[in-house]
From TrEMBL:
<keyword id="KW-0472">Membrane</keyword>
<keyword id="KW-0503">Monooxygenase</keyword>
<dbReference type="InterPro" id="IPR002401">
    <property type="entry name" value="Cyt_P450_E_grp-I"/>
</dbReference>
<keyword id="KW-0479">Metal-binding</keyword>
<dbReference type="InterPro" id="IPR050196">
    <property type="entry name" value="Cytochrome_P450_Monoox"/>
</dbReference>
<keyword id="KW-0408">Iron</keyword>
<protein>
    <recommendedName>
        <fullName>Cytochrome P450</fullName>
    </recommendedName>
</protein>
<keyword id="KW-1133">Transmembrane helix</keyword>
<keyword id="KW-0560">Oxidoreductase</keyword>
<feature type="transmembrane region" description="Helical">
    <location>
        <begin position="17"/>
        <end position="39"/>
    </location>
</feature>
<dbReference type="GO" id="GO:0020037">
    <property type="term" value="F:heme binding"/>
</dbReference>
<keyword id="KW-0349">Heme</keyword>
<keyword id="KW-0812">Transmembrane</keyword>
<dbReference type="GO" id="GO:0004497">
    <property type="term" value="F:monooxygenase activity"/>
</dbReference>
<comment type="similarity">
    <text>Belongs to the cytochrome P450 family.</text>
</comment>
<dbReference type="InterPro" id="IPR001128">
    <property type="entry name" value="Cyt_P450"/>
</dbReference>
<feature type="binding site" description="axial binding residue">
    <location>
        <position position="505"/>
    </location>
    <ligand>
        <name>heme</name>
    </ligand>
</feature>
Amino acid sequence: MSATIAQADGLNGNANIISPINMFYFLLAPALLLWFVYWRLSRRHMLELAERIPGPKGLPLLGNALDLVGSSHSVFRTIIEKGKDYNEVIKIWIGPKLIVFLVDPRDVELLLSSHVFIDKSPEYRFFKPWLGNGLLISTGHKWRQHRKLIAPTFHLNVLKSFIDLFNENSRLVVEKMHKENGKAFDCHDYMSECTVEILLETAMGVSKKTQDQSGYDYAMAVMKMCDILHLRHRKMWLYPDLFFNLTQYAKKQVKLLDTIHSLTKKVIRNKKAAFDKGTRGSLAITSIKTSELEKPKGDAGKTSTVEGLSFGQSANLKDDLDVDENDIGEKKRLAFLDLLLESAENGALISDEEIKNQVDTIMFEGHDTTAAGSSFFLSMMGVHQHIQDKVIQELDDIFGDSDRPATFQDTLEMKYLERCLMETLRMYPPVPIIARSLKQDLKLASSDLIVPAGATITVATFKLHRLESIYPNPDVFDPDNFLPEKQANRHYYAFVPFSAGPRSCVGRKYAMLKLKIILSTILRNFRVHSDLKEEDFKLQADIILKREEGFQIRLEPRKRKAKAL
Ligand code: HEM
């Protein structure tokens, strides 16, 4: 009898013993089936709500994943094309992952102004080996605690103390650019280098005088790390660490991070030693003209809402950077790192590792964004000569033929240049998408739709900034979109290049001030030309919006007119 069973079961020898491997396979199938049923049931709520959200059709299982295959520019074009039919909210599926794009300013306000929906989407984990738990990716109590500590270090009075450095580095970049006289070249390389140099000084207090080879290596490593992160976002097969770690990029990343972290650690060590010896902030900026710390004319000295400088967002939007100007005390002369170390010495709850994470975060966030923004601005000047004429006229009215450095007051008078900068950030927002992970359902303001918990929810800044219902002729570069009366009549959340609300960009004021000084210095010395028209630009959006062909411009040294009397 038992022999019969053994034969029937295909087993040799003892008929009642099933080998562990067979048992494993025997149980695996129902276990997988159970897991799949549970997984489907647990997602039922999500699937039901997602079903009602409009979006382009996808394939079974893959969803819209194939739209993300191809060159960076073709992916960008496909997404923009497919999004054309949707003006409020769009859904796509990347395999099992639901991504919802918000486009209506009312919904954008709901998300960005919230203190609940502050968790970053899982894709931000690629930054983790570099930035640890820095401000960009941290969440919850830690983020709140550190944001409170960091926001005041970007106070306007601190920023004014950086103006000499901004000027010095702007003059240097102009000197370097002279060698490109008349030739077409990619201005992003120059903007990138200049931005990292300025950050090394203002964020870490590492001045050119004290900088050795490690400063240069650091700057190069930051730029190359950004390239690897961009690449990883673009190539879906590099998403899992398992595959990424097998590539040459992973090996490169280890080396680059070693260079980056070694310098951050070294600088922190030196500065701490200086603190212990009582020479606080010894590597920090020392050349500050007290005139730069004066309040601009017309400022009653009560708040930092300086008349005439928008700082990159709608006039009535306020965040934690808009605080009392007087509430900064003695801190104004120190670099960002010195201020953090000082806070730690004074009992703030931040460890050395966390300080390193925050400095690395500032170096990343402050670099690529500003380099892209300034490169798009120069491209726009090259394409729109009649607009450039007006900017140049404004600069000549302010500076005449003088070579003097720009003051804070000058930046307040660069009203047309500022409008051009805002229009550049509208049409070419360096951060074209802001993504959050949704931990609870979000009922939209623009419709009855509900975005389910578990989705990645994003603000599609690029699309929002080009809505015809908000910006007539949205694809035309028109700085008058930022005339005060036009801004006053628009939804505040219709322009969010720096995000907005509690997780807005802490570097927003820093970026606007620095950009005005660098760009005005370039246009005081050169006229910019572009051989390509705007419609020839091949846009690519990895993490940062860029031009695939590079930011090709030509420069012509220009004669300045004497200041009008
Ligand atoms: C044109 C230049 C810039 C643009 C367009 C820009 C844009 C943005 C945007 C859209 C965010 C939100 C990102 C998100 O939620 O995923 C952000 C966050 C941030 N930015 Fe900027 N940024 C610029 C320059 C800077 C600079 C110069 C610094 C520092 C020196 C900086 C530091 C940061 C930090 C630390 C965060 C994270 C804030 C938080 O989560 O609390 N940014 N930026």
